[in-house]
Specification:
ATP-binding, EC 6.3.1.2, eight-stranded mixed β-sheet, 14 helices, Ubiquitin-like (UB roll), nucleotide-binding, six-stranded mixed β-sheet, glutamine synthetase activity, Creatine Kinase, Chain A, domain 2, 2 domains, 413 residues, Gln_synt_N
């Protein structure tokens, strides 16, 4: 069975991969001989691993491999993505992959023909946390970072991921891969796989790959832009797209709890011309939260620029589907585009002042809990645990004295 699923390859070991609530990849390795039993009966794991950052419970859960995701990972090893179930065979409500699957099923108005692509950015750092190079956007270079990027793109291709482009980003040591349009689950799986492969290959070279939203002062942040590819060849389809975008803008604050899920995420937002600060849309402005552009003439790319690379891709895509669905069902009205940054044009010059995005994780969590239409699309147990997790992170950060505070105040008071 394992050879058939592996396209004829032989695996000595198989890595069972799953995501916790924060989007961190977890894994259990089993020998080839145990794989068929894992497929039929599952593999027990400690359920507290799915609690994300805030470990609170001890309960056994069951990993069940998704055979469509089984691929060779090299050195006679395979990897397969798993779903989580409880002892009675029910999907575990805190499994982000299950949350996305349920959202796809419950948002058929939007998800039926939904395809999405993504841009994933990260920094390559040396052990002293300095960037691996001093290059910039689209630099033509043959340094170790660029060579590692090429090998990483090849590895991703060997794992079945369709990489459409890979290049140096704006910051020194900052890189990006673009993933081809896919269904929601395939795109989320691909983003999770890409992050683990990038990190593993950097580690093998003695480097650090970080997906922090903004790991270094005075340098650009790392985004995970999601392109929703929607049909737009006739007026009714264009109206559908406009309502999807309006839904995303209407729920922009709550969406940040999923797309900007760390304290550090708000070092990226509200910073510079290419990071959104308000719930606006545009055709060309890189400061807009959403950008619309034509793809092949028959489809429109709805690029959501609010998510950073630390976000859980399953929950980001689920939240975007939910926001789009509420926009379509509620016949939400799309405001006029804003092709300049709000800071550049000034709020006084805007006919209808756009909503400012949250400036902190605490604000984003509060806005999530206050957005009944959005959170009603999710399992209430997931929202409860997820929001508790975020607020625990806020509490932990508030008791920490930062280097900036010490430099700013230590000698002055």
């Amino acid at each position: 069975m394992i050879q058939e699923l592996g396209n004829g390859g032989h695996f000595a070991w198989v890595k069972l991969v799953f995501a916790d609530l924060s989007g961190t990849a977890r894994a259990v390795q089993i020998p080839e001989a145990a794989f068929e039993r894992a497929m039929s009966e599952g593999v027990r794991v400690d359920g507290s691993a799915l609690e994300g950052r805030n470990r609170m419970i001890e309960t056994d859960l069951v990993l069940r491999p998704d055979p469509t995701t089984l691929l060779p990972s090299g050195d006679h090893a395979g990897r397969v993505i798993c779903d989580l179930f409880d002892d009675e065979g029910r999907p575990w409500p805190l499994d982000p992959r299950h949350a996305l699957r349920q959202m796809v099923a419950s948002t058929a108005v939007v998800s039926a023909d939904w395809m999405g692509a993504a841009e994933l950015e990260w920094y390559l750092l040396r052990p002293d946390l300095s960037p691996v190079d001093g290059d910039g956007y689209f630099s033509y270079t043959r340094g170790e970072g660029e060579r590692l990027l090429e090998r990483t793109a090849l590895k991703l291709g060997a794992l079945g991921l369709s990489v459409t482009a890979a290049h140096h980003e704006a910051g020194p040591g900052q890189y990006e891969v673009n993933l081809k349009a896919a269904t929601p689950m395939l795109l989320a799986d691909s983003l999770m796989t890409a992050r683990t492969v990038v990190a593993d290959m950097a580690h093998e070279e003695g480097l650090i790959a970080t997906f922090m939203a903004r790991p270094l002062n005075d340098l650009p942040g790392s985004g995970m832009h999601v392109h929703q590819i929607l049909a737009g060849s006739n007026p009714s389809e264009v109206e559908h797209v406009e309502r999807v975008v309006a839904g995303v803008l209407d729920h922009a604050g709550a969406l940040c709890a999923f797309s900007a899920p760390t304290i550090n995420s708000y070092r990226r937002l509200h910073r510079g011309a290419e990071a959104p600060s308000h719930a606006t849309w545009a055709h060309s402005s890189r400061s807009a939260l959403v950008r619309l552009s034509l793809t092949d003439g028959d489809h429109i790319s709805v690029e959501y620029r609010g998510s950073d690379s630390s976000a859980n891709p399953y929950l980001v895509l689920a939240a975007l589907l939910a926001a789009g669905e509420t926009g379509v069902i509620g016949e939400a009205k799309l405001p006029a585009p804003l092709e300049e940054s709000v800071e550049g044009v000034g709020l006084a010059q805007v006919e209808t002042a756009p909503t400012q995005l949250p400036r902190s994780l605490e604000q984003a969590t509060i806005q999530l809990l206050g957005d009944d239409r959005l959170i009603d699309c999710f399992d209430d147990r997931l929202i409860a645990r997820y929001s508790e997790d975020l607020m625990a992170e806020v509490e932990a950060s508030q008791g920490y004295v930062s280097d900036w505070e010490q430099r700013r105040y230590l000698g002055n008071f």
